[in-house]
TrEMBL record:
Record GO terms (molecular function): ATP binding; homoserine kinase activity
Occurrences of domain GHMP kinase N-terminal (ranges): 69-153
Record family assignment: Belongs to the GHMP kinase family. Homoserine kinase subfamily.
Record key words, sorted: Amino-acid biosynthesis, ATP-binding, Cytoplasm, Kinase, Nucleotide-binding, Threonine biosynthesis, Transferase
Protein name: Homoserine kinase
Ligand binding (ATP): P98, H99, G100, R101, G102, L103, G104, S105, S106, G107, A108
SUPFAM superfamilies: GHMP Kinase, C-terminal domain, Ribosomal protein S5 domain 2-like
């Protein structure tokens, strides 16, 4: 494709993207919840070609800081999708979302880049919600983290021959997420490799019923969360790769808590039906865990990713 150039000199944007928990038990590759824990990014256009990346917080000294950086690749993918040449860029990322823990950090990086590109291309190219989701899904491969990261709340995402689609729902105000984050990581690719190619029909029916019920539980009837978070499609197949996650989820569930693997793990998401339940669940894990698990009592994020234009000379100071 021949790329046109656009005069973007002096432009700079600030982006904020929430963490997400995907699957929520039965809703494999479909349901996702946006959580109030954020990665922040500032991007400014510079005169020299290429990209510089400064990372503050999670991933500093670990993630690439050249053009192979996932955020830079997402910006480049978005520019390319509208046929505009990528200008030189300076990035400063302040990351709070833990990496490799099942909290949507790679989806957040992809969404950060796409939203930054959208902001930088204001007036040059327009992106509707469907286009943003398609760009993110191209890079992530499944839409259940990137949909809530983009749009907030609870999202149902599905894929059609024309591209991914989503429906955003507002979660019942009693629903109170607790995320328990271990020190060890889990690779999504490894978790996905443990999945069978086919499952028994009765297991598919089991998950259809629970995921339909889960939507009702999350938006209307939180007292059904325990029954609605049962799953037979992915968690048991992956349990051997994260034995302590599996053991603690079994313990939490037998004590009445709606606990599931967060995304591909190894973090645990507990969907409490009122805020006071969260402390009891966190205390149970602190008593019974053999390794350290960090409890995060997070609100549901209702807004999703945001991008705003900022002054270019503000770029070295990530938003607090
Ligand atoms: N649905 C995905 C999985 C989420 O469980 O593999 C993690 O990216």
């Amino acid at each position: 494709m021949t790329l046109r150039t656009a005069d973007l000199r002096g432009r700079a944007v600030a982006v904020k993207v929430p963490a997400t928990s995907a699957n929520l038990g039965p809703g494999f590759d479909t349901l996702g919840l946006s959580l109030a824990l954020y990665d922040e990014l500032r991007v400014s256009v510079r005169d020299e070609p290429g990209a510089t990346v400064e990372v503050v917080g999670v991933g500093a000294g670990e993630v690439p800081t050249d053009e192979s950086n996932l955020v830079v690749r997402a910006i480049a993918h978005t520019f390319e999708s509208v046929g505009v040449a990528l200008p030189g860029l300076d990035l400063v990322a302040r990351n709070n979302i833990p990496h490799g823990r099942g909290l949507g950090s790679s989806g957040a990086a992809i969404v950060s880049g796409i939203m930054a590109a959208k902001g930088l291309l204001e007036g040059v190219a327009e992106f509707d919600a469907q286009a943003l989701l398609a760009l993110a899904n191209d890079m992530e491969g499944h839409p259940d983290n990137v949909a809530p990261a983009l749009f907030g709340g609870l999202t149902i995402a599905w894929v059609t021959p024309e591209g991914p689609r989503f429906k955003k729902l507002i979660v019942h105000r009693g629903v109170s997420p607790l995320v328990l984050v271990p020190e060890h990581v889990m690779s999504t690719a490894l978790a996905r490799s443990l999945q069978p190619q086919s499952v028994p029909h009765e297991d598919a029916v089991f998950n259809v019923s629970r995921s339909a019920l889960l939507v009702a539980a999350l938006i209307q009837s939180p007292e059904l969360l325990h029954a609605a978070t049962e799953d037979k499609l992915h968690q048991s197949y992956r349990a051997s790769a994260m034995p302590e996650t599996d053991r603690l989820i079994t313990l939490l569930r037998s004590n009445g808590f709606a606990a599931v693997v967060s995304g591909a793990g190894p973090s645990i998401l507990v969907l409490c039906s009122d805020p006071s339940q969260r402390l009891a669940a966190a205390e149970l894990v602190a008593r019974e865990a053999q390794t350290a698990w960090q409890p995060l009592m997070l609100a549901v994020d209702f807004k999703g990713a945001t991008v705003t234009a900022v002054a270019a000379d503000d770029v070295d100071t990530p938003a607090a």
